[in-house]
């Protein structure tokens, strides 16, 4: 079934017919309309004729890459873009995120995870990036006052730690690369200093995460970056 009148339209780009069929079924069952393309140029043509609400694109395409497509879409659109990648394409994942992709899903993927990632990206696009309060798992971040509380108790963060948390939380659910975080929080001169980032993430987690178990708020995508998932 399709999403019907008013359903959001998702551009799906993959040159493997079986993947296209699977994505079509998954997205239509979730209530979306699907626009299909098997290469970069067809995708750009279909997106320009009637801009979709979001896109799911493979990293390897016959006439280019998902990185190329993402970069060209970003020249005129801020639609959410999720890239599909194989496990061994880590460098291309990073390039796609730096080109403006919002997230990636690794093949083979679970239907529920894919739809959840898409819905999170769509919510971010429709949300307000400057909301004064962000709440997650007992943590309250007052962006205007630069105050953080855990279960009502104020948490004392350094200015850098707060800026790092603010950028992660404003992009809630979105995977941010090491380089993107370093440039945003520390500046271009620190773009490759992942040791600095790891140290500050460790300090931030110690202050804001609940004790015991793996981190729930600031999660690691190994080799790529971090996301705020509260």
Automatic annotation (TrEMBL):
OmpR/PhoB-type domain span: 131-230
Segments of the chain annotated as binding DNA: 131-230
Top-rank taxon, per record: Bacteria
InterPro entries: CheY-like_superfamily (IPR011006), OmpR/PhoB-type_DNA-bd (IPR001867), Sig_transdc_resp-reg_receiver (IPR001789), WalR-like (IPR039420), WH-like_DNA-bd_sf (IPR036388)
Gene3D superfamilies given in the database record: 3.40.50.2300, 6.10.250.690, Winged helix-like DNA-binding domain superfamily/Winged helix DNA-binding domain
Keywords: DNA-binding, Phosphoprotein
A Pfam family: Trans_reg_C
Domain Response regulatory as annotated: residue spans: 9-122
Residue positions where 4-aspartylphosphate is found in the record: 58
PANTHER family xref list: KDP OPERON TRANSCRIPTIONAL REGULATORY PROTEIN KDPE, REGULATOR OF RPOS
Protein name in UniProt: Response regulator transcription factor
């Amino acid at each position: 079934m399709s999403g019907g009148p008013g359903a959001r339209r998702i551009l799906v780009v993959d040159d493997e017919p079986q993947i296209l069929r699977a994505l079509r079924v998954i997205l239509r069952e979730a209530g979306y309309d699907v626009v299909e393309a098997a290469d970069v140029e067809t995708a750009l043509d279909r997106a320009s004729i009637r801009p979709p609400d979001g896109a799911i694109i493979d990293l390897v395409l016959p006439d280019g890459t998902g990185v190329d497509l993402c970069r060209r879409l970003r020249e005129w659109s801020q639609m959410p873009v999720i890239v599909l990648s194989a496990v061994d394409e880590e460098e291309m994942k990073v390039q796609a995120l730096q080109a403006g992709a919002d997230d990636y899903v690794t093949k083979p993927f679970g239907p529920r995870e894919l739809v959840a990632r898409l819905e999170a990206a769509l919510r971010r696009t429709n949300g307000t990036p400057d909301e004064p309060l962000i709440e997650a798992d007992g943590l309250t971040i007052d962006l205007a006052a630069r105050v953080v509380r855990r279960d009502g108790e104020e948490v004392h963060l350094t200015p850098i730690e707060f800026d790092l948390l603010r950028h992660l939380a404003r992009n809630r659910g979105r995977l941010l690369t090491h380089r993107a975080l370093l440039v945003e929080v520390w500046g271009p001169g620190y773009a490759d200093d992942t040791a600095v980032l790891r140290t500050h993430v460790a300090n931030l987690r110690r202050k804001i995460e609940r004790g015991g178990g793996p981190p729930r708020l600031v999660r690691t995508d190994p080799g790529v970056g971090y996301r705020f998932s509260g």
